[in-house]
Every structure is written in C-alpha cells, then in structure tokens.
Amino acid sequence: MKIEGVIFDLDGTLVHTIEDIAAAANAMFVRNGLPEHDVEYYLRWIGSGAIRFIELALGTEVDRNQLLSYVAEFKEIYSNNLHDKSRVYDGIPEVLDHLASSGKKMAVLSNKPHPMTQQGTGYYLSDWPFHPVFGQREEVPRKPDPAGALEISTLLQIDPGRLLFVGDSENDVQTAVAGGMLPVGACWGYGEPDISQVKGRAWQIGHPLELLKLID
C-alpha cells in the first residue's frame, strides 16, 4: 500500500524537549514553594496534556482552580523558554527532506497545548511544510481519541489507511489504531510504545532513519 502522508507526534518524536519542559515546571514549583523534580520523573508524566502533567507532578490532590492556576503559570514560563535546551532529533531532518522531496504530506498532532505546539514546530521545523499542526485544543478530545488524527486525514484528503502515525507513546499507537492508520512506535524518544497487540501492519523502530524504508 502506498504511503501518502505521515502524522508525527512532537515531543519525544520530532524534538527533544523534556529539559525545557522540566525547567519550566520546576521554576513554577519554586515560585509557589513546592518541591522540584529531576528530569527522569517528568519523563513519566509527559504525554497527556499540560493539566494532567502538572497534576501528576504535584503528586497530591489540589483544588481545581489552584491546579489551573499552576498550569497557567507553567505555560507562561515555558512559552518564554521553549528554545533553551530543546533540539531536533538526529535523523529527523533527513526524513523530513525525503518526505518533502517525494511530495508526501506531513502533519503534527500533539497533546501539548495548541499554541505551544505551533510555536515549537514553527521554531524548530519551519524548513519543512507541516500542515496542519495541531496541539491540544479545548474543542477536540486529546489522544488517544482519534478525532484530531481523523481531522488531519480529512484536511489532507488522504485515506487514513495511507497515513503513518509516528509517536513515542502508547497514546500515539492507540490513536493510530482507533483512526485506522498505520502505527509506528518511535523508540528514540521518551518511551518504547508496545505494538504487540496491534493487529495488521505496525512497526517499532529505534532510529528516525528507519522511517525511510517504511515511507517507500
């Protein structure tokens, strides 16, 4: 089957971002007299959106309004420090060059808040024609719900079965399966998504350049 496009997760798939995310979260916690965490702990909590991320990092239940206040403060700090230590993964530029030169479509679907997803993609990946670029939007259920992925399929006018969905989390694999797309577990990022339960075509790869064989 001919692959006509690729939907990518962002954090841990295209761009290594966890150090900037951890720094912003720690800065917010310090401001509020709360304990900091090491980067490896933040890796456990990333991937389900900013609210859940901060909720897990807090480690204790707080009033909803207080939680949202912490999240807003984290977002403000992070949006001003997206580019301190983050970097595009080795091999990703070559993959994106190949996709662009072969006329295949590229899109981003992240559970990161929408403005930050667009900001990060615009800063690190502006050399390539990503469209659309979707982060978490209030009106669209976050991954693993396939709504955002299917919206992308419609916008690109590509049948879901001709789209690879590349991501480093179980959420990404589940999104691909629910949307009728082809899951690719990216094991160079923040997780090793399990594809063993996926019926049909699915792959787990350890380096971005391995995508070239799947694309072709």
What order do the helices and strands come in, and which of them pair?
Blueprint: E1 5-8, E2 15-16, H1 18-31, H2 39-45, H3 50-58, H4 64-79, E3 87-88, H5 92-101, E4 105-113, H6 114-124, E5 130-136, H7 147-156, E6 163-167, H8 170-179, E7 182-186, E8 203-205, H9 211-215
Helix pairs in contact: 1-4, 3-4
Commentary on this structure:
The structure is a single chain. With 216 residues, this protein is of the alpha/beta class. The strands form 2 sheets. It has a 6-stranded parallel sheet, with helices on both faces. Strands 2-3 form a two-stranded antiparallel sheet. It contains 9 helices and 8 strands. The chain has 2 domains: 5-16 and 86-215, 3-Layer(aba) Sandwich (Rossmann fold); 18-79, Orthogonal Bundle (DNA polymerase, domain 1). Helix 6 (114-124) links the parallel strand 4 (105-113) and strand 5 (130-136).
